[in-house]
Every structure is written in C-alpha cells, then in structure tokens.
C-alpha cells in the first residue's frame, strides 16, 4: 500500500490551497468530496472508537490521552507512529500531487481492531455504520472565540486549507459557516442534541484545561478502563501541552514539511483559554457576541470563554 511513508515533501508544493466544494451545505475540500461515496459507506466495527471534534478544538490532545489510556501509559508505545497514522483521519485524503497521498479511509480499513478513528464531520454526515454498530464516540467542543482564533492560525500555516484572508475576513466566514466542515454553531449543537441517544461522551476543552485529571477520569470510565494512580499521573504529564508541543509524534513536524509552515504558526500554538482577547477588537467582540446570542438561543449548551 502506498501509505507506508509519505515522500519527503519538497517546497515545490507551495500552491496546494484546497478547492472547496459544498456537500449538503457543508464546505469540504475537493478530495473529501470526490471520495465521499466511500467515506459514507465506511464499515465501522462495534469496537471502533470515534473521536469527533470541530477542527482545532483539542482533537490531537484527546487522541493522545486516549492512546495513552489504551497503551496503559506506555510512552514508547505511544511514540510508535504519528497521531495521524495511529488514528486515521476518516474523511481526509490528499490526492494531488501523487507524492502527498494520504487516505484516512484506506488507513482505517487496513487497521486491525480495535481502531480509534478521528473525524471533523458534523453529526449528520457521520457514516451510518457508526450508529448501526453502536460505536463509542468522544466529542470535544471548544468555545467559539478561541476555536476561531486557533482555526485562523491553522489556515495561515497549513497550505492544504483555503487561504484564510485577513483576520476580519476569516471571522466573517466563521460566523456565516463558510469554512471547512461548516458552521461551528451547528456542529457543537448537532452533536449535543445526539449525545443522549447514542454512546457519546461530550467533553469541553475548557474543562480539560482547568482540570485535566478529572476529564481523563471521565474518559477512563467511558472506555471502561482502569489505571493505577501512577499511570494516571504519567498520562497527565505526557499529555500536557508543553510535552506534546515538543513531541514529534504529536506536533505534526515529522511529515507534511511543504504543507505546514510552522514558522508562520506552529501546529501546537498556545493551547490556551482566552487567547481570543489578543485578537478581537471591541467592535468585533460586540458583533460576534450579538450574532452568537442569536445562533445559540435554541440550545442548552453553555461555553466558558475564560477560566
């Protein structure tokens, strides 16, 4: 299979900015759109674990916590490969140019059970087999303002994503849902609505920052795993932002060299709650808050924008 190792990505790949196509009103990249039939027909297995998030809401962090739990705190085992190979990114594929090829779908299909799979899909686009097989799903939500800031910087450094334009322009796109994987508001609300009907553990990024131990214990309980206090402390330490930022298996520096420019903004940038205050002007904040109140009026979901 051509997925063993990607070629070293040379800097000739400077113009990779994704073409965006809408699927049922959700903006996706052209490669995702062109492989959608296979994604939708994906065969989940009963022991699959799906980690679902809106992009830049603590996905990699959650993946590392889950892997550390599954490997009983064995750091070496968790460094067996990069995050995006340990946990295939279900819908993501890079089709052109050929040396950049990555197919989360193919990786997932070839992987022995039990699998942990990642997705950014809104709840209505999750392949039906996950529901049919009653798979466990961990969903992580992050407050809109910090999520927006993180997503903006990710677009700046990741040349496979559409050009974000200015901060002001990107904020507008985010508010109107004209960004990849669609509206943040619909995404967090959609998953929230389904959480009691399925085996979904709904977590908040802000809670994970404030009390990581408590949230890791929730994940342990959900996965029906038990670890010693020593292992729990090891998981806590190795999934801290500082450690993960330096870990080449989690910080996305191992591959995608011509795609992600960490000199513009590192993949693991700040991991903070409240960084939005360094980006929003007073006027932007008011506009965002007014719009937010309207869009979130129909949900019991509450987010914290500072700790």
Automatic annotation (TrEMBL):
Entry GO MF terms: sulfotransferase activity
Domain Sulfotransferase: 46-299
Highest taxon above the source species: Eukaryota
Record localization: Cytoplasm
Span of the signal peptide: none
Main localisation: cytoplasm
Gene Ontology cellular-component terms listed: cytoplasm
UniProt keyword terms in alphabetical order: Cytoplasm, Transferase
EC number: 2.8.2.-
Record-stated family: Belongs to the sulfotransferase 1 family.
Name the record gives this protein: Sulfotransferase
Lineage: Eukaryota, Metazoa, Chordata, Craniata, Vertebrata
């Amino acid at each position: 299979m051509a997925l063993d190792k990607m070629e070293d990505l040379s800097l000739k790949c400077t113009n990779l900015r994704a073409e965006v196509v809408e699927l049922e009103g959700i903006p996706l990249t052209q490669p995702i759109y062109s492989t959608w039939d296979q994604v939708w027909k994906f065969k989940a297995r009963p022991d699959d674990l799906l980690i679902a998030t809106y992009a830049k809401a603590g996905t990699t962090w959650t993946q590392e916590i889950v892997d550390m739990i599954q490997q009983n705190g064995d750091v070496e085992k968790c460094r067996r490969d990069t995050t995006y190979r340990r946990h295939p990114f279900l819908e993501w594929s890079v089709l052109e140019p050929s040396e950049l090829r990555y197919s989360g779908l193919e990786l997932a299909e070839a992987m022995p059970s039990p699998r942990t799979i990642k997705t950014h899909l809104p709840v209505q686009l999750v392949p039906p087999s996950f529901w049919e097989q009653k798979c466990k799903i961990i969903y992580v939500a992050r407050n809109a303002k910090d999520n927006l800031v993180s997503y903006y910087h990710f677009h700046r450094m990741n040349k496979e994503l559409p050009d974000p334009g200015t901060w002001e322009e990107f904020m507008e796109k985010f508010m109107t849902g004209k960004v990849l994987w669609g509206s943040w508001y619909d995404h967090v609300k959609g998953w929230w609505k389904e959480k009691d009907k399925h085996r979904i553990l709904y977590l908040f990024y802000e809670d994970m920052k404030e009390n990581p131990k408590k949230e890791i214990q929730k994940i342990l309980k959900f996965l029906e795993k038990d670890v010693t206090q020593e292992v729990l402390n090891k998981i806590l330490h190795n999934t801290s932002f500082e450690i993960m930022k330096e870990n080449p298996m989690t910080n996305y520096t191992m591959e995608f060299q011509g795609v992600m420019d960490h000199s513009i903004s590192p993949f693991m940038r700040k991991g903070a709650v409240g960084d939005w205050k360094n980006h929003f002007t007073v006027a932007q904040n008011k506009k965002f808050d007014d719009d937010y109140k309207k869009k979130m009026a129909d949900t019991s979901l509450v987010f914290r924008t500072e700790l």
